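@here heads up, posting the sequence + SMILES for the pyridoxal-5'-phosphate run so it's all in one place. Ping me if the SMILES looks off, I pulled it from an old spreadsheet.
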Amino acid sequence: MTLQDRLDAVERRLQAACARSGRSREEVRIIAVTKYVGTATVLEALRCGIRHLGENRWQQAEPKWRAISGPDAAADYAVQAVWHFIGSLQSNKVKDVIDKFTYIHSLDRMSLAQAIDRHAARLGIVVPCFVQVNVSGEQSKHGLAPEETEHFLKELAAFRSIRPIGLMTMAPHEEDPEATRPVFRQLRLLRDELNARSATAEPLTELSMGMSNDFEIAVEEGATWIRLGTVLVGKEEV
Ligand SMILES: *Cc1c(COP(=O)(O)O)cnc(C)c1O
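bot reply: prediction finished. Complex structure tokens:
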């Protein structure tokens, strides 16, 4: 199967999930998670019309970012690609990614917020961020506990160069994707509750949730960004 075939298959499943849940297809955007693949495949994805690229480590992302969006990259790709940082981020790595990734999906602590705000202010930019929430409570997962989120968002209001736009979560891997539904539903309800309580100056509109194994369930539960690696771009030895 070519990447275009896989994209077509994902698109059909995504449209069906939107139809089942009475949502419009335009409400959901796809991030191609390219951490498992090399530059050639990322370029192929861009040729298929994919625009949003997700990476979880700068070290792995760097050669691809340079080829596609770096100073020497072909201009048409640089214009097209929008980079999303989706992995856990060390504060001392913020300086590497801040001017290259438009969105950060993994904001989960004050020390990281301070680092993002400081570097963004220096560059004169405002960074749209997702606050990562550990809904499932698994030890291995990053993110705030749901009950800590409101307090965290209120503290974030002090940072002029961070714009919280939504919440992000990762569901546990389940054999039966249906089992992930409560996690996604809880993230949506938390977002709605935070908005009802005006936890942020602007309502949180976005939900970054759903991966290869469970994206249809996430879409049915309100995802606005799905992060697709294996099912879309595959997995290579890189
Ligand atoms: C790797 C990764 C994905 C994509 O994983 P797949 O299961 O291959 O779709 C999505 N989100 C995050 C945070 C990831 O690290």
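MO: The radius of gyration is 17 Å.
MO: One more: The pocket of pyridoxal-5'-phosphate is lined by residues 33, 35, 56, 86-87, 170, 211-213, 227-231 (CB under 6 Å).
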